[in-house]
Amino acid sequence: MAFDKKTAQIIAYRAAYICSNPECNTLTIGPAITDPQLKNKKGEAAHILGEKAGAARHDPNSSINVASVENGLWLCANCHTLIDKNKGADYSSDDLFGWKKDHEETISMLLRTHKSPLPLISRQSTNRKIAQDIVDYISNQGVYFQCHSIENPDYVIKSIDEVRKRIQREVRAIDSDKGLKDICRYIQDANRECMNELSRDNSLLPDYLTILRKRVGIQLKRLRDEIGCHISGQITSIIP
User: Fold this and answer.
1) How many separate domains does the chain show?
2) Longest Cα pair distance anywhere in the chain, in angstroms?
3) Which letter does DSSP use for residue 41 in this model?
4) Cα–Cα distance for residue pair 127/130, rounded to 1 Å
């Protein structure tokens, strides 16, 4: 069950409507561009300790009121979904209480010292643009979606190497986002390993490309679901 409206609003105010995930910090409210009477909101008050048995991080022995502000964490919709995956196995309550404490202290400090939260938002915007640039570049490389029969091994290796180098350059500009860097590293590893295999033996080109496309497709799905990248065109054929 969601927090009641008043509690959710307090949780949001205490976070300044900015996602409390330290690797995200995206702004969760804003105007609708086409209508001055409309607004957009993509933030949610998430439970740190689940309300019921079976819920993510449910603790029947906790003294915390699960419906209280104390148990609420303001997150963007993507991060809310992420922390509750697999019943919260990857995100402990201690970690999330730490996020809440650190984020609220940061917002309080910005408020007291009359400093802008825009660097937090700017960092996220910059990283998102880098992620989208990577997606757009990969989307234009036929090696990831063309019919195997028309691929030339030499051109395949060259194309894969160019993608690897492009991502390597882009990664240097990513600011404090381990998740995005991990995705980029996985794509680089997939490209490098495929390139190395083909340089030794290109007789299995279709098999190597199939494996490469599956590995890259999984990471593109993460860029779409976790970072919010827009993906379209033929490249979508490799996304699971």
Assistant:
1) 2
2) 65
3) E
4) 5
- Could you tell me if 153 and 227 lie in one domain? yes
Q: State whether residue 95 is helix, strand or coil.
A: helix
Helix%, strand%, coil% for the chain, nearest 5: 60, 10, 30
100 plus 165 within the same structural domain: no
Contacts of residue 5, Cβ cutoff 8 Å, sequence gap at least 6: none
Residue with tokens 């409309």: 38
pLDDT tens-digit series, residues 205-231: 999 999 999 999 999 999 888 777 889
Asked whether residue 124 falls in the same domain as residue 233, the answer is: yes
Q: Which two three-digit tokens encode residue 199?
A: 């340089």
What predicted TM-score, i.e. pTM, was given to this entire model? 0.55
Residues in the chain: 240
Q: Which token pair is 34?
A: 């086409």
Could you list the residue range(s) of the whole structural domain that residue 135 is in? 118-238
- Residue range 103-147, pLDDT digits in tens: 999 899 888 888 878 766 666 678 888 999 999 999 999 999 999
**101, 94 Cβ separation under 8 angstroms:** no
